[in-house]
Amino acid sequence: MLRITIHNHAPVTSFVLEGKLVGAWVKELEKCWESALATDPFKAMLVNLAAVTFIDSDGRALLTRMRRQGVKLLSHGVLIEAIVAKIEEEQQTTERNKFNRE
Phi and psi (nearest 5°) for 51? Predict the structure, then answer.
């Protein structure tokens, strides 16, 4: 089970997640994110993962795509912080590689 609460206040849209980001819930978060993008593609976005207890591989892949699109990830707890740190590391590597090619 996953609860998604969306706070759409200027200047940031934030998604507060509670529970497990797994299975069908990954698609639900993706729909929420795509809807927010369609409404205002330039608005800053944040995913608050402080109350998330588990993320499966599909959830991790979605968070990686979101991060690549500029979404900030806020985490808490050893497991979730490790996942977010890995996503951030991959993002920094991608940005460095892009910079080096230019």
Answer: -105, 20
DSSP string, 65-92: HHHHTT-EEE--SHHHHHHHHHHHHHHH
First-residue to last-residue Cα distance in the chain: 44
Contact in structure between 33 and 3 (CB atoms under 8 Å): no
* Domain containing residue 22: CATH number: 3.30.750.24
What's the structural domain count of the chain?
1
| Confidence (pTM) | 0.86
Which residue range(s) make up the domain with 54?
Answer: 2-101
Tokens 């759409």 belong to: 8
Query: pLDDT tens per residue, the chain (102 residues)?
Result: 999 999 998 899 999 999 999 999 999 999 999 999 999 999 999 999 999 999 999 999 999 999 999 999 999 888 899 999 999 998 888 888 877 776
3-state SS assignment for residue 90: helix
